[in-house]
Amino acid sequence: MTEVTIGSRQGKRQKGEQRRGTCVYCGKEGPITRDHVVPQTLFLVKDEQMLTVPSCSECQQEKARGERDLRNYCNLEIGGSMHPDAEAHLGKMIDSANVRARNGMRKALQAAEEVILVDEADNEVGRALDVDFSTDRMLKSLEFVFRGLYYAAVGQRLPDDSPVEVTVVPWAIFPSFMRTIGAMRQEAPAVKGDLVAWWSRLGPLDAGAETTAWVLCVNDGVGFFGTTGEMAIIERRRKEEDVAKAPAVREGPRRVRVPRAPDGRLLIPRQ
């Protein structure tokens, strides 16, 4: 396992004594354990070199509340559903030992609405299901993820008063977004599993050390854009403006534009 640690070296612990230190996420001093920055629940087979950071139990519990939501979202979302592991994940969701989670997933699938997939000329090329999915807990967990990635890259905690903003990259622009940010990456992305998760820091940005931008990709088809510091404030304002401009009522089935792969073919999901 690859572990990132902070603070000075401490004396040898007695057998059974819990390690103490500083939580990367909240800065609290006290008992700490290693937390996987990128949630293990995303992987059917665990990668041997997972990124871990020291954190307190309270932060781990809060981060964990949305990790299952993140897994479900990334395997149900159109882009993520095309990953080879998605079908096995879906089976685990439906057959979950957690009765509440299992029933919730089945109700969500039963209530899903059909959407029309279209090409650039608005011609129908297929159909898909639109699952009504609450992303609040998932986005909160991803804030922890980007704080962890910041620490691993910079070597120090992101200050508590520095905002973190997480944006879901729409599937319709996912390939073009990834091509655009490819030229902005500071280094080659860190890849875990069979493209189950990879991430990269973007920049450099003409701002202070607290201002960073990241891309996290799950299942090679679901993108998350993470920002900190001034970039987070700018991104938050942009999203608020987009919400204000959005139409209040949608008539008829939603039409979703299908993106194209680098070779020009339409990325139509399996039926």
Determine the N-to-C terminus distance: 38 Å
Total count of helical runs of at least 4 residues: 8
How many structural domains does the protein architecture include?
Answer: 1
Q: Give a count of the beta strands, DSSP E runs of length 2 or more.
A: 13
Radius of gyration: 20 Å
Largest sheet: 5 strands, antiparallel
Class from helix and strand fractions: alpha+beta
Strand order of the largest sheet: 8-12-11-10-9
How much is the average pLDDT? Answer: 85
Beta content comes to 15-25%
Shape annotation? globular
Walk me through the structure:
This protein has one domain (67-263). The two termini are 38 Å apart. Helices cover 32% and strands 23% of the residues. The chain has a 5-stranded antiparallel β-sheet, with helices on both faces. Helix 1 (57-64) crosses helix 6 (136-154) and helix 2 packs across helix 4 (86-94). It is of the alpha+beta class and 271 residues long. InterPro entries: HNH_nuc (IPR003615). Residues 1-20 are annotated as: Disordered. It comes from uncultured Thermomicrobiales bacterium. This is HNH endonuclease 5 domain-containing protein.
